[in-house]
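User: quick one
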Amino acid sequence: MEPVDPIDARLLQALGEEPRATVVALAERLGLARNTVQARLTRLEARGVLGSFDRRIEPAALGHPLRAYVTTRVEQRRLAEVTTALARIPEVVEVVGLAGDDDLLVQVVARDADALYSIAGSLLAVPGVERTSTALVMRQLVPFRLDPLLARRANSDDTSTRPG
Amino acid sequence: MEPVDPIDARLLQALGEEPRATVVALAERLGLARNTVQARLTRLEARGVLGSFDRRIEPAALGHPLRAYVTTRVEQRRLAEVTTALARIPEVVEVVGLAGDDDLLVQVVARDADALYSIAGSLLAVPGVERTSTALVMRQLVPFRLDPLLARRANSDDTSTRPG
DNA sequence: GACGAGGTTGAGCACTATGGTCGCCGTAGC
DNA sequence: GCTACGGCGACCATAGTGCTCAACCTCGTC
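Assistant: Done. Structure below.
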């Protein structure tokens, strides 16, 4: 994916501070023409820079305040099959494939400890899953954020990938 | 956090399908009065149901296509100090405290493998950090999603927490 | 140096949405 | 029976939208 340029970064920063800001408000704030902001927003969406809206929703607000990471080892050749089965479990909110000892990292949410226990059971019951290890999230110490990276990109002078 | 009611869930579902939908469009779609939708949206934001806008931004679009989970063990009594230090590293996008052998799970993003390597070094260099283990995310098999839970809540008949 | 592609700009257009307030009404709880 | 709350529909003035246009400017290419 092509990285965004500094102007887009500033746009995203502004949106971060005021997600419901209107296009004209953003244009004023950034010192750009309304037209430009509108065009750039459209392009950002089209390029897939913005992920699904779901990512902004707090699972706790859906009655699932518990969050856990389940590291999972699977029979390698049944990986696709396992992925499909995991996707069918509503409480599984994300699955990523890892490099290393564990094959999958499964992020799950649950209503309470009891529910979490049975979800962990559901994971183990999936054919192809060999071993799981559940790590409960007790506290979010640094909430998800991208502003430091946004700020860096907004302040870079050119449009190419610069610092580390 | 108080869970949302089925109407709010349907509202969030609709937003998920069309994040930039106007209030009137949402009202039409849900068969509600515009006034109601507006009031509910305001309440949703006020209640903190919606997290930061950053969560929708794809780190790859910021020039950081690599993502890794770093499990970290720290000197327990220096936890706060360590958290602060980690928060100062731009590539650290989230830190959660875990129950179990590992104390922290640190989500980092990086420009390339080289950058990732030096970020891992930065983590280890934080005073109080005893041991780290980096797991590179190779593929997102199930992208983050909440729609199954939203759908369940949207279809439940009452406003209290129901099924598991 | 001329060329075209692509992005930015300001203007203008008809249409629509916004945020605010109002009174009315049904439901749930006391 | 009363109150609190949420939904409703209506109204208003203001503001934003999505769109098109022609005029730039700055690249990189030929």
